[in-house]
């Protein structure tokens, strides 16, 4: 073993360091392509999972909106029933449903 002598900075207890050589060009083309395909597959899976999660959230939001709309409509018909005759309110409901179907 060759003796290096005293270190210039005075820290002889540190292990001698090697020169910095970046490994950017040392990986093979096959390794890089494998790594690239693996990361692309991972990103695609993450995107798919995010889309599923967002679709589930949108489904819940739509269910809440539908429930609120049904509740409002029920309350509106209840108010009309207080003023009008029951059979007339039922006829009005059927007529409005027909108009909704025709317009959509």
UniProtKB/TrEMBL annotation:
It is found in: Nucleus, Nucleolus. One of its GO terms (biological process) is rRNA processing. Transmembrane segments: none annotated. Keywords: Coiled coil, Nucleus, Ribosome biogenesis, rRNA processing. Pfam families: Cgr1. Residues 8-20 have a biased composition (Basic residues). InterPro entries: Cgr1-like (IPR005579). The keyword Hydrolase does not apply. GO terms for cellular component: nucleolus. Residues 1-28, 43-70 are annotated as: Disordered. Involved in nucleolar integrity and required for processing of the pre-rRNA for the 60S ribosome subunit. Belongs to the CGR1 family. This is rRNA-processing protein. It comes from Diatrype stigma.
